[in-house]
Design a protein that fits this description.
Strand order of the largest sheet: 5-1-11-10
Distance between the termini: 10 Å
Largest sheet: 4 strands, mixed
């Protein structure tokens, strides 16, 4: 069964903080190390250790770059735009820190054991696929010295896709990583006013960003996370120095991600950058809800440490949770044996459990009447809405004023997707007004599984409570088998339903 992850971003979020929190939550470090060993990128090592942040024990994930590609990320005076006692040339300032070397306090108290893994192998075959482009902001930045600048490699989205293709990881993890990179690329392209495929930028091209993003994807996949709840991103204020000079906080890439993906942002009084572009892109890519259950049970807690020193604790807290309604204690404390009815009533008081296993949820319904769009346009719009995350889209034939035949477009989506859906409808149709309503709905517990039938593997959805579950084979998964084998859809469907009865 899938797991729900709650990310508490009161001290912001960055790539390395997220990896550390997920490792602390139980992600398999050996699985991660094996994936990082296969990345066709050289010049880095990772260190996983225990540190103390504001008196709290936390996991620290550190991507240590070779000296020639390291930067200023933990130099607070430099990041905030203050000059050092020695003089820096204009060229040195033009090659500065990466947002993603990452966050908050670097003066950790290191405790217990540390794990260092160095990756300096050449990956010659894969390196041939990586072309050289314009200026980077991360792994190819100049060191904080007066030495001459070295020749640097540079990466855009084409090179990133090749790196992902050459890395040994699951398709699911690869998909998560690609989505994060695409969101980041779109934001950087917007900030610099260039097409996505032409942007050669600091966030996507940096070695530490690549390692952080792949690590987040691998850990999420390894933990089996299917829902991610992020109510708000807390950001600082002031300025931060980057490749393009001293920029206001939030930096442009973060504001574009927040705006494009409908994230909730709260500006705090902390002076400094709390939310990095990679951190914002991670949230935008994996968040499924901004609303926590009214009551919930915490299964496990992971705490990831940041690197920079700010006034806030500098930690990211991650929790595996489930709604309290789904938690039924085996035995109520203090109830004599044999008094089951009293035990049941006590359990309901303690956990809020009711007889129904159904789950309350909220959804938004968007509607608009359209009488002057062609069928081709409406078909295209439906595809785009589904791609953007709509839960359902349908058209209903209606008659409008003056007896005009028309279509009622209805879109079902989550609250956080409403702005994007409305923007898409306005951009792609002739609609000049959209109605929306927040609706409460009751949904059955559901989970996705894979079953084997004689002709191959089929994805199924299991819905309902234990003892009253129903199986619904996924159409595309079943249809693909039917096309390849010639078996009838009805026959394959029944085989999948029968196979699901053997699932635990």
């Amino acid at each position: 069964m899938g797991k729900s992850l709650y990310l508490e971003c009161y001290s912001g979020i960055s790539g390395d903080m997220t990896v550390a929190a997920l490792l602390d939550l139980g992600a398999d470090q050996k699985v991660l190390e094996d994936v990082l060993e296969s990345i066709p990128v050289q010049g880095f090592e990772i260190k996983v250790s225990r540190v103390t942040k504001s008196g709290i024990d936390a996991c620290d994930f550190d991507v240590i770059l070779d000296a020639e590609i390291d930067g200023h990320d933990h130099d607070m005076e430099y990041l905030h735009g203050h000059d050092h006692s020695h003089t820096h040339g204009a060229e040195e300032y033009n090659h500065s820190h990466t947002h993603e070397a990452e966050e908050h306090n670097h003066s950790h108290t290191h405790m217990a054991e540390e794990h260092n893994h160095q990756y300096e192998h050449s990956h010659e075959a894969a390196a041939k696929n990586v072309a050289a482009h314009g200026h980077d902001h991360g792994d190819e930045i100049a060191a904080h010295t007066h030495e001459p600048h070295r020749q640097h490699k540079h990466r855009g989205m084409n090179e990133i896709r090749q790196i992902l293709a050459d890395t040994k990881m699951t398709d699911s993890a690869r998909g998560i990583a690609l989505k994060i990179f695409q969101i980041l690329a779109k934001a950087e392209a917007k900030a610099h006013n260039v097409p996505v495929e032409e942007v050669h930028f600091h966030e996507v091209g940096a070695v530490d960003s690549i390692v952080d993003i792949l690590s987040v994807a691998v850990c999420l996949d390894n933990l089996g996370i299917t829902e991610v709840i992020v109510p708000v991103l807390c950001e600082g204020m002031g300025t931060v120095r980057c490749q393009h000079g001293i920029l206001p906080v939030p930096v442009p890439a973060v504001t574009h991600i927040v705006q494009q993906c409908g994230l909730d942002l709260r500006i705090t009084q902390v002076r400094g950058e709390l939310v990095t572009p990679t951190g914002a892109a991670i949230v935008a890519a994996v968040r499924t809800s901004c609303k926590l259950p009214e009551t919930f049970v915490i299964e496990k807690i992971g705490i990831g440490a940041g690197k920079r020193t700010y006034e806030c604790p500098g930690i990211l807290r991650a929790m595996l949770i489930h709604p309290e309604e789904s938690h039924k204690p085996e035995k109520a404390v203090g109830i004599p044996a044999g008094n089951e009815s009293a035990a049941n009533e006590t359990a309901k008081i303690q956990t809020g459990v009711t007889e129904s296993a159904d789950c309350a949820d909220y959804i938004y319904k968007l509607e608009t009447n359209i009488d002057d769009c062609s069928g081709e346009v409406l078909g295209f719009v439906m595809e785009k809405l589904f791609e953007a995350g709509a839960r359902d889209v349908h058209y209903t034939p209606v008659y409008m004023k003056k007896n005009r035949p028309a279509w009622l477009l209805t879109v079902i989506c989550k609250e956080e997707d409403v702005p994007g859906m409305e923007a898409l409808i306005f951009a792609e149709t002739t609609s000049i007004g959209i109605r929306r309503v927040k609706m409460e709905r009751t949904i059955l517990p559901r989970r996705k599984r894979k079953v084997m039938i004689p002709f191959g593997e089929v994805e199924v959805k299991i819905c309902g409570s234990e003892g009253a579950e129903k199986c619904y084979p996924e159409y595309e998964s079943l249809a693909e088998i039917c096309r390849k084998t010639g078996i009838s859809y009805a026959e394959a469907y029944q085989m999948a339903v029968d196979a699901s009865k053997n699932l635990e």
